[in-house]
C-alpha cells in the first residue's frame, strides 16, 4: 500500500520536509515512489503538485494526518 507522508530533509533545527508517495513498509528516509510537494515549517511555505496528489489518491494512496493537515491549510479538498 502507498501512503503520502513527510520525508525529512535538512539539518538539526533547520529541517524541511518533502511530501512523497512511499510504500508503507519503507523507512522515513527510504526510497520514494514519487515526490509531490515540499513543506517548510519555519517559513510556513508549501509547494504542492495537486495533479500528482490527486492521481495517487485516486489510485488508492492513503494520507497521513500531517499531510492531511497541510492539504487542509492549502484549501485543497480531496473528495
UniProtKB/TrEMBL annotation:
Location, primary (coarse class): plastid
GO-annotated cellular components: chloroplast; mitochondrion; small ribosomal subunit
Pfam family for this entry, one: Ribosomal_S16
Keyword list, A-Z: Chloroplast, Plastid, Ribonucleoprotein, Ribosomal protein
HAMAP family named among the record's database cross-references: Ribosomal_bS16
Family: Belongs to the bacterial ribosomal protein bS16 family.
Full protein name: Small ribosomal subunit protein bS16c
Species of provenance: Vittaria appalachiana
